[in-house]
Design brief:
Elements lengths: L3 E7 L5 H15 L3 E7 L14 H9 L3 E5 H7 L10 E4 L2 H10 L3 E3 L2
Parallel strand pairs: 1-2, 1-5, 2-3, 3-4
């Protein structure tokens, strides 16, 4: 069985519905043969706040194995801390650095 890897880039909260729709389509199509990470930076980190409107969707995808990461630089710039996000969200030093690392590992880059 072939395996795939994809990284979604989320930098605007307004794009969250499209990211989640694309994510759902990808999982429906490739199922267990795909590893997926969603990286949020800039204002996009707000999508994964504990108090955010997408908590249920985030939880659903996290339970399916989707990884989520937020940019530490963006957290500092926006005044958030690690405690503002669910435990399932990783904090990475920089969102763009995470994207570059993942692309070097062969992840397909998707930016809705």
């Amino acid at each position: 069985m072939e395996s795939y890897r994809a990284i979604f880039h989320l930098d605007e909260p307004a794009k969250a519905p499209l990211v989640f729709a694309n994510l759902g389509n990808l999982l429906d199509d490739l199922g267990g043969s795909v590893v997926v990470e969603v990286v949020a930076n800039s204002e996009g980190v707000k999508v994964f706040l504990l108090t955010g409107q997408y908590t249920a969707r985030f939880r659903e995808y996290a339970e399916q194995g989707v990884q989520f990461a937020v940019c530490a630089n963006s957290l500092r710039a926006l005044g958030f801390t690690r405690d503002d996000f669910p435990r399932a969200v990783r904090v990475v030093p920089s969102g763009v650095g995470e994207i570059v690392r993942r692309q070097a590992e062969g992840y397909a880059y998707i930016r809705p």
